[in-house]
Amino acid sequence: xxxxxxxxxxxxxxxxxxxxxxxxxxxxxxxxxxQVSGSFKNEPAFEEVVxxxxxxxxxxxxxxxxxx
Length: 68
What we know:
Number of strands: 0
Distance between the termini: 68 Å
Oligomer: single chain
Helix content: 55-70%
Number of helices: 3
Radius of gyration: 24 Å
Order of helices and strands: HHH
Largest sheet: none
């Protein structure tokens, strides 16, 4: 019988495809966050932007947790 595949068959096929795709990716590939994390360390301009953002949030009352 060559009918429509069952949900279980479709899920199995998807799991096989995902496993194959994972094998194509490097195991130690950094996430986007890991790639940019720390890239603005000791950058005065970035600290200035953070301070401006904080001031704006405090002015409009949306800064629920102000960081030191």
